[in-house]
Design brief:
30% of the residues lie in helices and 17% in strands. It is of the alpha/beta class. The chain has 2 domains: 10-171 and 378-402, 3-Layer(aba) Sandwich (Rossmann fold), CATH 3.40.50; 174-361 and 405-445, Dihydrodipicolinate Reductase, domain 2.
Length: 457
């Protein structure tokens, strides 16, 4: 966006509420009165896709909405989360294996979507056409053309749509402060921004295995090609635990291009987003994406993996992105996870746990303008990302993580994956949102849905 005012105006946030001081950048976000005060006024939600992040966004939302329904193609996951939701809100939600039954219900105002990425667009589009507002986890799409379709349907239906890039709303204002530092010239003219988004481990050969009891594997695949379920018996520990450490399902879906985009669209959807926001590039895009070095875990031919029994997303990478105003963006799997901003007058680093560097230290003697943080956000900072969504539902204006800015930055991540799959630079026209002079690369801008799982429009 061209400036802070146009950013706030386009999202249409309420600016009449009291602003918090920008100097207290590490203080917890100020609380404020929530729009739905009466139980009868509270919005009614449903969550589709409940493992891990699905439960995370659901549990963050109990304060702001009532959950009438949950849906998942794994009956075990569904059953556990029905019990957890009943315990949290003192009322049992209905459970469905088929998400379409959720969309048929007239009492549900909004859906939260936390399925694997390859399901996002179909469910989101059908939900909007069914009259639902949508909160969808990141990365929003599997392809660039899916993003354009979602934009079209948001405009057509007038639904409110929040993408789950919660770094815009949470983490004690660290990322908002980073954006403010750049926009207020605290590092001079920006020359380079480096997004560190971690590497990914390769897998051993993963054999065909029996489908776990309770999982509808065909529906889990949905729009993706029909393949066998694969898994090794060793279980994952920690976050995402309780499922096979190596599989082509559940937690490991991010490692397969059939269902996601590896670290590029996983963590990239967070850090590239903040980088573009700070650069004022949320309404434009790169001119060129160049893979400097990378490693794919399997052999590729014409941009497609030649085997089906191992992870196929890039395990390591260093990508150069030519951004507007001669800014160089580097996306790398090396170094600390976070964003390094470098300009003619300084540099600083930010991630979820810290914001460091001389421009940050200088805030003690030279604080940002009084309302710098809230001006960046477009209003008072909410308790969490869901509160911003529910307030947008009430005002009928788009929330902080709108689909247009999200798709612009996600195009960088998708193009990076295409460049690695084809092992060559990709030229991009940010005005037309088209790949320039490369028909083979352009074929990766869309993906055909499996028969029977096309988007119902």
């Amino acid at each position: 966006m061209s400036n802070q005012k146009s950013s706030a105006s386009r999202r249409g946030f309420l600016k009449s509420a009291a602003a918090i001081g920008a100097a207290a950048i590490w203080a917890p976000s100020a609380s404020r009165a929530f729009g739905y005060m009466s139980p009868n006024d509270r919005p009614v939600f449903a969550t589709i896709g409940l493992r891990n992040q699905g439960w995370t966004i659901t549990s963050k939302s109990f304060k702001f909405a009532d959950f009438a329904a949950l849906a998942d193609v794994d009956s075990n996951v569904l059953g556990v989360n029905i019990e957890r939701t009943e315990k949290a809100q003192k009322k049992k939600p209905d459970g469905y294996a088929d998400y379409r039954k959720v969309l048929d219900r007239k009492d549900i105002d909004a859906v939260m979507i936390a399925t694997p990425d390859h399901w996002h667009t179909k469910i989101a589009v059908e939900a909007m056409l069914a009259g639902k507002d949508v909160y969808c986890e990141k990365p929003l799409t599997l392809t660039i053309d899916e993003g354009k379709l979602i934009e079209k349907i948001v405009k057509q239906t007038g639904r409110v749509f929040q993408v789950g890039t919660m770094q815009r709303s949470e983490f004690e204002n660290r990322f908002l402060t980073a954006v403010a530092l750049v926009k207020h010239g605290r590092i001079g003219t920006v020359k380079r921004v480096t997004c560190g988004i971690d590497s990914m481990e390769a897998s051993p050969v993963i054999p065909v295995a029996p489908v776990p009891e309770g999982l509808d594997w065909d529906v889990w695949l949905g729009p993706a090609p029909k393949v066998d379920y694969r898994a090794l018996p060793q279980l994952r520990e920690g976050y995402g635990g309780g499922v096979p450490l190596f599989s082509n399902c559940h937690y490991s879906f991010r490692n397969w291009h059939e269902y996601s985009g590896g670290k590029l669209t996983d963590w990239g959807a967070h850090h590239v987003d903040v980088a573009c926001w700070a650069l004022g590039a949320t309404e434009t895009g790169p001119s060129k994406v160049t893979p400097l070095q990378f490693k794919l875990p399997v052999e590729y031919k014409d941009g497609h993996p030649t085997v089906q029994d191992q992870y196929n997303a890039a395990t390591s990478f260093r990508i150069k992105v030519d951004m507007p105003n001669d800014v160089e963006m580097i996306i790398t799997s090396e170094g600390d996870n976070g964003i390094l901003f470098e300009g003619t007058e300084g540099r600083f680093f930010v991630n979820r746990g810290k914001i460091t560097g001389k421009p940050v230290e200088d805030l003690k003697s030279k604080p940002l303008p009084e309302n710098a943080i809230t001006d960046i956000y477009g209003g008072p900072i909410p308790e969490n990302h869901t509160q911003n969504f529910t307030e947008a539902m009430k005002s009928r204006k788009q929330p902080i993580s709108d689909v247009w800015s999200h798709n612009r930055m996600l195009e960088i991540c998708h193009l990076s994956n295409i460049a690695m799959r084809l092992n060559r630079p990709i030229n991009w026209d940010p005005a037309k949102r088209e790949i320039v002079g490369d028909a083979q690369a352009s074929a990766f801008l869309s993906r055909e849905s499996r028969k029977g799982y096309e988007i119902n429009m």
